[in-house]
Amino acid sequence: MSHASLEAFLRRYLDSQPDGEVIIGWQGGEPTLRGLDFFREALRLGEELRRPAQQVRHAIQTNATLIDDAWGEFLAAEGFLVGVSIDGPRHLHDMYRVNKAGRGTYDQVVRGYQVLRRHGVDTNILCTVNSANVAHPLEVYRHFRDDLGADFVQFIPIVERVEEGSEEIAEAGWRSEGEYVAYRQAGAGVTSRTVDGAAYGEFLVAIFDEWVARDVGTVFVQDFDVTLGAVFGQHSLCVRAPECGTQLAVEHTGDVYSCDHFVEPGYLLGNINEESLAELASRPAQVEFGRAKRTALPAQCRECPVRWACNGGCPKDRFATTVTGEPGLNYLCPGYFRFFTHVTPSMFEMASLLRSGRPAADVMAARR
Q1: Contact 209, 216 (CB under 8 A)
Q2: Using an 8 Å Cβ cutoff, are 339 and 333 in contact?
Q3: What distance in Å separates the CA atoms of residue 9 and residue 271, rounded to the nearest whole number?
Q4: How far apart are CA 329 and CA 323, in angstroms?
Q5: Catalytic residue status for 260
Q6: Which one from 122, 209, 255, 260 is the annotated catalytic residue?
Q7: pLDDT digits over 95-139, tens only?
Q8: Coil, helix or strand for 128?
Q9: For residue range 67-85, what is the model confidence (pLDDT) as tens digits?
Protein backbone atom coordinates (compact mmCIF):
# COMPACT_ATOMS: atom_id res chain seq x y z
CA MET A 1 0.00 0.00 0.00
CA SER A 2 1.39 3.35 -1.01
CA HIS A 3 1.54 6.28 1.39
CA ALA A 4 -1.14 8.05 -0.63
CA SER A 5 -3.52 5.09 -0.37
CA LEU A 6 -2.74 4.68 3.32
CA GLU A 7 -3.59 8.30 4.02
CA ALA A 8 -6.71 8.13 1.86
CA PHE A 9 -7.89 5.01 3.63
CA LEU A 10 -7.39 6.41 7.11
CA ARG A 11 -9.00 9.74 6.22
CA ARG A 12 -12.02 8.09 4.61
CA TYR A 13 -12.38 5.49 7.35
CA LEU A 14 -12.20 7.95 10.23
CA ASP A 15 -14.61 10.29 8.44
CA SER A 16 -17.10 7.41 8.15
CA GLN A 17 -16.98 6.47 11.84
CA PRO A 18 -18.82 8.06 14.78
CA ASP A 19 -17.12 9.59 17.79
CA GLY A 20 -15.79 7.24 20.45
CA GLU A 21 -13.60 4.20 19.95
CA VAL A 22 -12.68 3.38 16.34
CA ILE A 23 -10.95 0.08 15.62
CA ILE A 24 -8.81 -0.30 12.50
CA GLY A 25 -8.08 -3.89 11.48
CA TRP A 26 -4.97 -4.87 9.54
CA GLN A 27 -4.85 -8.16 7.65
CA GLY A 28 -3.04 -9.64 4.66
CA GLY A 29 -1.57 -11.93 3.43
CA GLU A 30 0.81 -11.40 6.29
CA PRO A 31 0.67 -7.74 7.39
CA THR A 32 3.93 -7.78 9.38
CA LEU A 33 5.78 -8.14 6.07
CA ARG A 34 5.06 -4.44 5.60
CA GLY A 35 7.44 -3.63 8.45
CA LEU A 36 7.27 -1.58 11.61
CA ASP A 37 7.82 1.75 9.85
CA PHE A 38 4.59 1.33 7.91
CA PHE A 39 2.60 0.85 11.10
CA ARG A 40 4.36 3.68 12.88
CA GLU A 41 3.28 5.94 10.02
CA ALA A 42 -0.25 4.52 10.11
CA LEU A 43 -0.51 5.38 13.81
CA ARG A 44 0.89 8.87 13.24
CA LEU A 45 -1.61 9.54 10.47
CA GLY A 46 -4.45 8.11 12.52
CA GLU A 47 -3.73 10.52 15.34
CA GLU A 48 -3.39 13.41 12.91
CA LEU A 49 -6.62 12.67 11.04
CA ARG A 50 -8.96 11.59 13.83
CA ARG A 51 -11.53 13.94 15.28
CA PRO A 52 -10.90 15.06 18.88
CA ALA A 53 -13.67 12.83 20.22
CA GLN A 54 -12.40 9.72 18.44
CA GLN A 55 -10.06 7.23 20.09
CA VAL A 56 -8.26 5.09 17.54
CA ARG A 57 -7.32 1.50 18.36
CA HIS A 58 -5.61 -0.98 16.07
CA ALA A 59 -5.94 -4.74 15.62
CA ILE A 60 -3.75 -6.99 13.51
CA GLN A 61 -4.06 -10.61 12.39
CA THR A 62 -0.69 -12.33 12.00
CA ASN A 63 0.96 -15.73 11.72
CA ALA A 64 3.53 -14.33 14.23
CA THR A 65 6.53 -15.83 12.42
CA LEU A 66 8.19 -12.41 12.15
CA ILE A 67 7.33 -11.21 15.65
CA ASP A 68 10.42 -10.28 17.67
CA ASP A 69 11.05 -8.05 20.68
CA ALA A 70 10.91 -4.88 18.56
CA TRP A 71 7.44 -5.85 17.36
CA GLY A 72 6.43 -6.88 20.88
CA GLU A 73 7.49 -3.55 22.38
CA PHE A 74 5.71 -1.59 19.65
CA LEU A 75 2.45 -3.55 19.77
CA ALA A 76 2.33 -3.38 23.57
CA ALA A 77 3.13 0.32 23.73
CA GLU A 78 0.49 1.18 21.13
CA GLY A 79 -2.23 -1.04 22.61
CA PHE A 80 -2.72 -3.30 19.61
CA LEU A 81 -5.03 -6.29 19.81
CA VAL A 82 -3.17 -9.12 18.06
CA GLY A 83 -4.76 -12.23 16.63
CA VAL A 84 -2.34 -15.12 16.11
CA SER A 85 -3.15 -17.93 13.70
CA ILE A 86 -2.52 -21.33 15.31
CA ASP A 87 -4.33 -24.50 14.30
CA GLY A 88 -3.54 -26.66 17.33
CA PRO A 89 -0.49 -28.55 18.60
CA ARG A 90 2.47 -29.02 16.26
CA HIS A 91 1.34 -32.17 14.43
CA LEU A 92 -2.03 -30.58 13.57
CA HIS A 93 -0.85 -27.02 12.90
CA ASP A 94 1.91 -28.18 10.56
CA MET A 95 -0.47 -30.12 8.31
CA TYR A 96 -1.42 -26.97 6.40
CA ARG A 97 0.51 -24.09 8.00
CA VAL A 98 3.77 -24.51 6.11
CA ASN A 99 6.37 -22.15 4.68
CA LYS A 100 7.42 -21.85 1.04
CA ALA A 101 9.77 -24.79 1.49
CA GLY A 102 6.90 -26.93 2.69
CA ARG A 103 8.14 -27.13 6.28
CA GLY A 104 5.84 -26.68 9.26
CA THR A 105 5.74 -23.30 11.00
CA TYR A 106 4.50 -24.25 14.47
CA ASP A 107 7.77 -23.52 16.28
CA GLN A 108 8.12 -20.10 14.65
CA VAL A 109 4.50 -19.20 15.36
CA VAL A 110 4.60 -20.20 19.02
CA ARG A 111 7.92 -18.38 19.50
CA GLY A 112 6.27 -15.21 18.18
CA TYR A 113 3.16 -15.79 20.28
CA GLN A 114 5.30 -16.13 23.40
CA VAL A 115 7.11 -12.89 22.58
CA LEU A 116 3.74 -11.14 22.47
CA ARG A 117 2.69 -12.65 25.79
CA ARG A 118 6.00 -11.71 27.40
CA HIS A 119 5.50 -8.08 26.39
CA GLY A 120 1.93 -8.06 27.71
CA VAL A 121 0.28 -7.64 24.31
CA ASP A 122 -3.47 -8.35 24.21
CA THR A 123 -3.74 -11.52 22.13
CA ASN A 124 -6.28 -13.99 20.87
CA ILE A 125 -5.80 -17.23 19.00
CA LEU A 126 -7.49 -17.75 15.66
CA CYS A 127 -7.75 -21.44 14.83
CA THR A 128 -8.95 -22.56 11.43
CA VAL A 129 -10.99 -25.74 11.67
CA ASN A 130 -10.02 -27.93 8.75
CA SER A 131 -10.01 -31.57 7.71
CA ALA A 132 -6.80 -32.22 9.68
CA ASN A 133 -7.76 -30.96 13.13
CA VAL A 134 -11.55 -31.34 13.17
CA ALA A 135 -11.37 -34.83 14.72
CA HIS A 136 -9.29 -33.54 17.66
CA PRO A 137 -11.39 -30.83 19.34
CA LEU A 138 -10.32 -31.33 22.96
CA GLU A 139 -6.67 -31.78 22.04
CA VAL A 140 -6.80 -28.46 20.20
CA TYR A 141 -8.74 -26.60 22.89
CA ARG A 142 -6.68 -27.91 25.79
CA HIS A 143 -3.46 -27.05 23.96
CA PHE A 144 -4.58 -23.45 23.66
CA ARG A 145 -5.86 -23.25 27.23
CA ASP A 146 -3.32 -25.32 29.14
CA ASP A 147 -0.12 -25.17 27.10
CA LEU A 148 -0.36 -21.68 25.60
CA GLY A 149 -2.40 -20.00 28.34
CA ALA A 150 -4.90 -18.55 25.88
CA ASP A 151 -7.77 -16.48 27.28
CA PHE A 152 -9.48 -15.68 23.96
CA VAL A 153 -10.00 -18.15 21.12
CA GLN A 154 -11.93 -18.11 17.87
CA PHE A 155 -12.58 -21.01 15.52
CA ILE A 156 -12.97 -20.32 11.81
CA PRO A 157 -14.24 -23.17 9.58
CA ILE A 158 -12.30 -23.68 6.37
CA VAL A 159 -14.59 -23.97 3.36
CA GLU A 160 -12.81 -23.75 -0.01
CA ARG A 161 -15.19 -23.92 -2.95
CA VAL A 162 -14.07 -25.45 -6.22
CA GLU A 163 -15.53 -25.13 -9.69
CA GLU A 164 -15.65 -28.21 -11.87
CA GLY A 165 -12.37 -28.46 -13.75
CA SER A 166 -10.35 -26.56 -11.13
CA GLU A 167 -9.83 -29.45 -8.73
CA GLU A 168 -6.15 -29.99 -9.48
CA ILE A 169 -5.23 -26.31 -9.09
CA ALA A 170 -7.31 -26.06 -5.93
CA GLU A 171 -5.55 -29.01 -4.31
CA ALA A 172 -2.20 -27.42 -5.14
CA GLY A 173 -3.20 -24.38 -3.09
CA TRP A 174 -4.41 -22.36 -6.08
CA ARG A 175 -0.96 -22.41 -7.65
CA SER A 176 -0.16 -23.32 -11.21
CA GLU A 177 3.39 -23.43 -12.57
CA GLY A 178 4.65 -21.20 -9.78
CA GLU A 179 1.89 -18.63 -10.25
CA TYR A 180 -1.03 -18.01 -7.93
CA VAL A 181 -4.44 -18.49 -9.49
CA ALA A 182 -7.36 -16.33 -8.39
CA TYR A 183 -9.70 -18.05 -5.97
CA ARG A 184 -13.36 -17.23 -6.52
CA GLN A 185 -16.52 -17.93 -4.57
CA ALA A 186 -17.92 -20.28 -7.19
CA GLY A 187 -18.57 -23.97 -7.67
CA ALA A 188 -20.25 -26.75 -5.72
CA GLY A 189 -17.13 -28.79 -4.91
CA VAL A 190 -14.69 -28.38 -2.03
CA THR A 191 -11.00 -29.06 -1.48
CA SER A 192 -9.61 -31.84 0.68
CA ARG A 193 -8.62 -29.19 3.25
CA THR A 194 -12.26 -28.21 3.73
CA VAL A 195 -13.91 -29.19 7.00
CA ASP A 196 -16.86 -31.57 6.85
CA GLY A 197 -20.01 -29.73 7.92
CA ALA A 198 -21.30 -32.33 10.36
CA ALA A 199 -17.83 -32.89 11.84
CA TYR A 200 -17.50 -29.13 12.41
CA GLY A 201 -20.60 -29.24 14.58
CA GLU A 202 -19.23 -32.12 16.65
CA PHE A 203 -15.96 -30.21 17.06
CA LEU A 204 -17.76 -27.23 18.59
CA VAL A 205 -20.03 -29.41 20.73
CA ALA A 206 -17.09 -31.25 22.30
CA ILE A 207 -15.32 -28.00 23.16
CA PHE A 208 -18.51 -26.38 24.44
CA ASP A 209 -19.21 -29.24 26.83
CA GLU A 210 -15.77 -28.86 28.42
CA TRP A 211 -15.99 -25.07 28.43
CA VAL A 212 -19.45 -24.86 30.01
CA ALA A 213 -18.39 -27.28 32.77
CA ARG A 214 -15.19 -25.46 33.82
CA ASP A 215 -14.13 -22.42 31.78
CA VAL A 216 -17.04 -19.95 31.64
CA GLY A 217 -15.71 -16.53 32.56
CA THR A 218 -12.05 -17.48 32.25
CA VAL A 219 -11.74 -18.59 28.62
CA PHE A 220 -13.66 -16.62 26.02
CA VAL A 221 -14.58 -18.51 22.84
CA GLN A 222 -16.02 -16.29 20.12
CA ASP A 223 -18.58 -18.85 18.93
CA PHE A 224 -20.00 -19.15 22.44
CA ASP A 225 -19.93 -15.44 23.25
CA VAL A 226 -21.69 -14.55 20.00
CA THR A 227 -24.35 -17.20 20.54
CA LEU A 228 -25.08 -15.88 24.03
CA GLY A 229 -25.31 -12.38 22.59
CA ALA A 230 -27.87 -13.60 20.05
CA VAL A 231 -30.16 -14.65 22.91
CA PHE A 232 -30.35 -10.94 23.74
CA GLY A 233 -30.82 -9.97 20.08
CA GLN A 234 -27.23 -8.74 19.76
CA HIS A 235 -25.30 -9.74 16.66
CA SER A 236 -21.66 -8.67 16.92
CA LEU A 237 -20.34 -11.06 14.24
CA CYS A 238 -21.38 -10.55 10.62
CA VAL A 239 -21.44 -14.30 9.92
CA ARG A 240 -24.24 -14.76 12.46
CA ALA A 241 -26.10 -11.47 11.91
CA PRO A 242 -29.42 -11.36 10.02
CA GLU A 243 -27.89 -9.02 7.44
CA CYS A 244 -24.33 -8.04 6.48
CA GLY A 245 -22.65 -5.69 4.01
CA THR A 246 -20.82 -3.32 6.35
CA GLN A 247 -17.51 -5.23 6.58
CA LEU A 248 -15.85 -3.71 3.52
CA ALA A 249 -12.37 -4.80 2.48
CA VAL A 250 -9.76 -2.29 1.29
CA GLU A 251 -6.93 -3.65 -0.82
CA HIS A 252 -3.40 -2.20 -1.01
CA THR A 253 -4.37 -0.41 -4.23
CA GLY A 254 -7.20 1.42 -2.50
CA ASP A 255 -9.81 -0.75 -4.24
CA VAL A 256 -12.80 -1.48 -2.02
CA TYR A 257 -14.77 -4.73 -2.15
CA SER A 258 -18.06 -5.87 -0.66
CA CYS A 259 -16.35 -8.18 1.85
CA ASP A 260 -12.97 -9.80 2.40
CA HIS A 261 -14.49 -13.10 1.24
CA PHE A 262 -15.58 -11.52 -2.06
CA VAL A 263 -12.45 -9.77 -3.30
CA GLU A 264 -13.20 -10.47 -6.95
CA PRO A 265 -14.28 -8.34 -9.95
CA GLY A 266 -18.04 -8.72 -9.50
CA TYR A 267 -17.85 -7.21 -6.01
CA LEU A 268 -15.56 -4.24 -6.66
CA LEU A 269 -17.27 -1.11 -5.33
CA GLY A 270 -14.72 1.56 -6.18
CA ASN A 271 -11.53 3.12 -4.82
CA ILE A 272 -10.92 5.13 -1.66
CA ASN A 273 -8.76 7.58 -3.59
CA GLU A 274 -11.88 8.62 -5.49
CA GLU A 275 -14.91 8.10 -3.24
CA SER A 276 -15.77 8.00 0.45
CA LEU A 277 -16.45 4.73 2.25
CA ALA A 278 -19.91 5.99 3.12
CA GLU A 279 -20.68 6.47 -0.58
CA LEU A 280 -19.34 3.03 -1.46
CA ALA A 281 -21.18 1.28 1.37
CA SER A 282 -24.49 2.92 0.43
CA ARG A 283 -24.40 1.89 -3.22
CA PRO A 284 -27.57 -0.01 -4.16
CA ALA A 285 -25.58 -3.11 -5.14
CA GLN A 286 -23.84 -3.18 -1.75
CA VAL A 287 -27.04 -2.56 0.19
CA GLU A 288 -28.65 -5.45 -1.69
CA PHE A 289 -25.57 -7.62 -1.08
CA GLY A 290 -26.08 -7.19 2.66
CA ARG A 291 -29.87 -7.50 2.58
CA ALA A 292 -29.72 -10.71 0.53
CA LYS A 293 -28.24 -12.52 3.53
CA ARG A 294 -31.78 -12.41 4.95
CA THR A 295 -34.00 -12.29 1.87
CA ALA A 296 -32.27 -15.16 0.00
CA LEU A 297 -32.70 -17.71 2.77
CA PRO A 298 -34.31 -20.96 1.58
CA ALA A 299 -37.52 -22.13 3.26
CA GLN A 300 -35.61 -24.70 5.34
CA CYS A 301 -33.64 -21.87 6.97
CA ARG A 302 -36.63 -19.56 7.43
CA GLU A 303 -38.45 -22.32 9.34
CA CYS A 304 -35.40 -23.55 11.31
CA PRO A 305 -35.67 -23.48 15.13
CA VAL A 306 -32.09 -22.24 15.51
CA ARG A 307 -32.28 -19.47 12.95
CA TRP A 308 -32.10 -16.98 15.86
CA ALA A 309 -28.46 -18.00 16.36
CA CYS A 310 -27.34 -18.89 12.85
CA ASN A 311 -29.25 -16.67 10.38
CA GLY A 312 -28.04 -18.92 7.58
CA GLY A 313 -24.34 -18.31 8.13
CA CYS A 314 -22.00 -16.52 5.74
CA PRO A 315 -23.24 -16.09 2.13
CA LYS A 316 -19.89 -17.39 0.88
CA ASP A 317 -20.82 -20.87 2.17
CA ARG A 318 -24.37 -21.00 0.82
CA PHE A 319 -23.81 -23.33 -2.10
CA ALA A 320 -25.58 -26.48 -0.85
CA THR A 321 -29.19 -27.45 -1.50
CA THR A 322 -31.98 -28.27 0.93
CA VAL A 323 -33.68 -31.66 1.24
CA THR A 324 -36.27 -30.39 -1.26
CA GLY A 325 -33.59 -29.29 -3.73
CA GLU A 326 -33.84 -25.56 -3.04
CA PRO A 327 -30.50 -23.76 -3.49
CA GLY A 328 -28.88 -21.42 -0.98
CA LEU A 329 -28.36 -23.74 1.98
CA ASN A 330 -25.15 -23.24 3.92
CA TYR A 331 -22.56 -25.98 3.38
CA LEU A 332 -22.03 -26.01 7.16
CA CYS A 333 -25.75 -26.36 7.97
CA PRO A 334 -25.50 -29.87 9.52
CA GLY A 335 -22.83 -28.62 11.91
CA TYR A 336 -24.62 -25.38 12.72
CA PHE A 337 -27.86 -27.23 13.48
CA ARG A 338 -26.09 -29.77 15.70
CA PHE A 339 -24.16 -27.13 17.64
CA PHE A 340 -26.92 -24.58 18.15
CA THR A 341 -29.48 -27.23 19.08
CA HIS A 342 -27.07 -28.67 21.63
CA VAL A 343 -26.11 -25.38 23.28
CA THR A 344 -29.53 -23.69 23.33
CA PRO A 345 -30.54 -24.87 26.85
CA SER A 346 -27.24 -23.74 28.37
CA MET A 347 -27.33 -20.43 26.51
CA PHE A 348 -30.79 -19.61 27.80
CA GLU A 349 -29.73 -20.68 31.29
CA MET A 350 -26.77 -18.28 31.16
CA ALA A 351 -28.99 -15.53 29.79
CA SER A 352 -31.38 -16.05 32.71
CA LEU A 353 -28.48 -15.75 35.15
CA LEU A 354 -27.33 -12.50 33.58
CA ARG A 355 -30.86 -11.05 33.63
CA SER A 356 -31.05 -11.78 37.36
CA GLY A 357 -27.76 -9.98 37.98
CA ARG A 358 -25.68 -13.11 38.44
CA PRO A 359 -22.55 -14.03 36.41
CA ALA A 360 -22.90 -16.47 33.52
CA ALA A 361 -20.16 -18.53 35.20
CA ASP A 362 -22.74 -19.69 37.75
CA VAL A 363 -23.95 -22.09 35.06
CA MET A 364 -21.02 -24.30 36.00
CA ALA A 365 -22.29 -24.97 39.53
CA ALA A 366 -24.92 -27.46 38.41
CA ARG A 367 -22.36 -29.31 36.29
CA ARG A 368 -19.86 -30.03 39.07
Answers
A1: no
A2: no
A3: 9
A4: 10
A5: yes
A6: 260
A7: 999 998 999 999 999 999 999 999 999 999 999 999 999 999 999
A8: strand
A9: 999 999 999 999 999 999 9
